[in-house]
Amino acid sequence: MSAKQRHGDGFVRRFGVVLVWAAVVVVFSVVKPHTFPTSSNFSTLFASQAPLGIVALALIIPLTGGDYDLSVASVLNLASMLVAVLNVQHGMPVGYAAILAVLLGVVVGIVNGVICVFADIDPFIVTLGMGTFLDGLTLWISNSAPLAGVSQSLVNLLVIDRFLGLSLEFWFLIILAAALWFFFDYTPPGRRLLVVGRSREVARLSGLRVRRIRILSFVAAGGISGLAGVVYVGTSGSADPSAGTSLLLPAFAAVFLGATTLWPGRFNPWGTLVAVYFLTTGINGLAQVGVSTFVQQLFYGGALVIAVLLSSLVGRPSLRPGRGRRPGVAATGGNGPAARSVSATPASGGDAA
Amino acid sequence: MSVPLLRVTNLWKYFSGTPVLSDVSLELGEGEILGLVGQNGSGKSTLIKCLSGYHNPDSAWRLEINGSTISRGLHPGEPASLGISFVHQDLGVIGELTVLENLLLERLGQERAPVIRWRAEQRKARELLESFDLQLDPRTKLGALRPVEQAQVAIIRAVMQLRDRPAPNGRGTGVLVLDEATTFLDRTGRESLHSLLRSIAATGSGVLFVSHDINEVLALADRVTVLRDGRVVDTAPSAELSPDDIVGLIVGGNRSTRVDQLADDVAAELAADSAGSRDAAELGIAAAAEPIRSFAVRDLAGPHVSGIGFGATRGEIVGITGIVGAGWEFVLDHLYGAQPAESGQLEVNGTAFPLANMTPRQALGLGAILVPAKRLTQAIIPGLSIRDNVMLPVLDDSFRGGRLRLRELTLRCARVLRDHAVQPPQPDRQIGTLSGGNQQKAVLGKWLQLAPRLVLLNEPTQGVDVGARQLIFRIIRRAAERGAIVLYASGDWDEVARLAHRVVVIADGKVAAILDGDDVTADRIAESAYRGTRRSADLARAADAVVTDMTN
Description:
Radius of gyration of chain B: 25 Å
Strand order of the largest sheet of chain B: 6-7-8-3-9-10
CATH architecture of the largest domain in chain B: 3-Layer(aba) Sandwich
CATH class of chain A: Mainly Alpha
Number of strands of chain B: 22
CATH superfamily of the largest domain in chain B: P-loop containing nucleotide triphosphate hydrolases
Number of helices of chain B: 19
Helix content of chain A: over 70%
Radius of gyration of chain A: 20 Å
Distance between the termini of chain B: 62 Å
Number of domains of chain B: 2
Oligomer: heterodimer
Largest sheet of chain B: 6 strands, mixed
CATH class of the largest domain in chain B: Alpha Beta
Helix content of chain B: 40-55%
Strand content of chain B: 15-25%
C-alpha cells in the first residue's frame, strides 16, 4: 500500500459521509418531492436535533482524552427534568434552573473524573454506573411521569426565535462546534488532551498534568451535557423521565461516524455534526416514506457498528493499532486494561506473519 | 552446500517507482547461521517482508525452500507451511499469558482439536525447553520473566512451529528468521541467546539473523550478507571480516561522506545557533538556561537499585552502565521521576530534592529532560505528526493572541528537524513513518530545543542504524559542549566508552566502580561490571554461609 494510493482515495475518505448524506437527501427528495425537500422540514430537522448534537459534542472531549463517558445522556435527561421540576413545580425562574442544571452536569463530571483518575478504575464501568444512578434520580424527582409547562421564555429563545430561518438552538450548536474545533486545533490544552488520549505515558513523561487534564475532560463533558439537557427541555417545553437516555446510542453512533469523516481517524466536532445530520436525515426520510419507528433503532445501531468498522479500516493506515492507543477510533487501546492489550497484539502479529 | 535450505534469487521490489531491493540473492544452508546487516532503509525489512508474505516481489523471483521452488509472492501463512518461521523485534509475546499459553498461541489459532490437553501440552513444552537447556517453567507468567527469557520463549515458539508443521522435507527443520529480535537485549542476554541459536542450527535448521549489532553478527553468524541501498554488496564468511570491514560495507564510500557532511552541517548550525541567539529568541526557542554549578545524586534506592551516588559537572558526559539487569536501566527513570524511587536525593546547585517525590514535571522544572528507553511507547506517538510530537513541550510559546500559531509552530518544528538532521524534515509527516534513527533524532530535537541543563538519555541508540548513531553521538556531544550535564545509560560498553568522560558502573544494583580518564574503556567497564557482580555474589554467598552457620 503506497502513500500515493492513500492520497488517491483521500477525498472519498474525507468526504465519504458527506457524499452519502447528499445521496440520501437526493433519494428522499425524489421519493417524497412534496414533503421531504421543503424548507420547513429541514428547519425542523436541523433545530430539533440540536440536543443530540450537543451531547455528541460533549462526548468527543473525554473520548479525545482516551476516556469513555457513558453518562452523558443520563446527565442530559436529569438536567432536563431538573429544569422542569424546579421551574414548573417550584416556580424557580427558568434561567436559574438552567444554571443549576449545568452545574449538576459539572458536579457529575467531577465525580466521574475523580473516581476514574484517582482510583484508576475503567471509565467505562464508572460512567455506566453513574449513568444508571442518574436515571434513578430522574425517575425519583419526576415520580416517573413526564412534566410539561416549562416557561415559554426558554422555548422562545431556543425554538421560536430564528436567525436565517433556523431556530437559535441550531446556531447554539454551531457555535459550540466551532468553539470545540478551535479548542482542539488552536489551543495548547486541546493539543495536550489529544496527546493524553493517544498515550498517557508519553504525556506524563512530557510533563503534562495527565490527571488534571482527564478530570477536566469529564467535567467539560458533564457541563455540556447539562447544557444539552436545558436545550432538550426547551425544545419541547416538557421533560420526559426516559426520553433523554435514548440519545446515548445515537450520540455514540454520530461521534464514531464523525471520526471517519473530514479529519478521518480523529474525533472531530464538524465530522460529528455531519454524522448527526446524516443519521437524522435518514430517519426523517424513512419516517416520511412510512417505515415504522423501529427503523430508528436499526439505523442508529447499524450506523454505530458500521462507523466503528469503517473507522478501523480508514484509520489503519494513519494510526497503527495497538501502540499506546486508547479507546481511540477503532476502540482498541494499548495502555488500557489487560483485555485491550491482548486484543491489540494479534493485530501487530498479523502484520508480521 | 550443494542444495541449500533456502535460496532466494532475482528479488526486486519497488516502492512508488524507486527500487528498494535490486536483484537480491541469498543462500542459507542446513545448520548454517547467516547474518544479514545493513542500515535502516537498506532493504533488510523489505526482504524479510517478502519472505513473510507481507510484500509481493516485483519480479519473477525464485524462492527455493526445503526442496520446493516458488516464483510468485507468498500468501500470509504460506511461509509457515513451507518451513519458514519468524521472530520479530517486538517478539509477539503476551505478558499477561503464561509461557505455555504463549508457546501455543499460534497453534491454538489453527488447531482443529476442540479440547486442549493442558497437561500433555505442558509436558511437551517442558521437554522442548529442556532439550535446549532452558530452565523455564511453562506455568510462569511471561511478564514476570527477564527480557532475555521472553526472547527465548519467542524463539522456541518459532522452533515449535517448524516442528509442528513438517515442511516438505519431513524432518521438522526449516528456516528461522530473527528480525532484529535481539535489539532490546543487553550483551549477556544476547550471548545466552546465541548458544540457543547455535543449538537450533545444530539440529539442521538454518538461521537468518538480522541485527544492527555488527559485533554480535560476527560472533554468531557463519557468513554475513551486507545490504546497502537495496543491493547485496557482499557475502563472506564471518572469519574473513572485521567489524571495520562491515561498517565500511554497510555505510559505503559515498554514504559515509554524506553522513559526515550532514553531521558537520548539524554542528555548524548548532554553533550558529548558540552564536546568534537573536534567531533563537525570534523563534521562541528557550535561551540556554544557566548551567548547573553543582550536581550530585545521593543514596538513590528503588526496586532494583540501592545506595547509588555520584556527581557530575557541567559539560560532562557520564555513562551509566553495567550488565543487563544490574539496575543501571532504572537510574535515569528514578532521577526524572518516570518511575518512583524509594529514597534518595538529587542535589542541584546546593538544593536537595527528594527523589521519592520526583515527578517528570518537577524534573522538567529543574531543567532536566529524559529520552526514555522505550521509544514507541514512552517517547513518541506514532500516529501523530512529527510536529505534534516534537513541539509538545513548547506549545505555549506559539500561543499568542488567543490562538496557536500553527504555521509558526510548523516552521519552528522544521528548524528543529533540520538542526537534528531528521530525514525527511517534514513536520506534517506521521512520526511513525520515520526510521528508528530518525524518530530518535526527532525525540532528541523535541527535548534539546528546551536547552536543558541536565540531559538524561536512556539507551538512545537502541534500534538505530550506524549512520544515525553517529549523528546522535554528535548531537549529544554538542549538548554537553553547551554546558549541559549528560547522563548516558546504555548496555553497550563500546558506545559508552566512546562517548562518556566518566562511567558509573553498576553491578547488582550498587555502584561497582566509577571510571574516569584512561580507565574509560570497554574492557575496564566489562571488568568492573563482571567483577562487581562476582564480588557481591561472593558477599551474598558468604552472608548465606553465616546465616546457615547460625541456624545450625
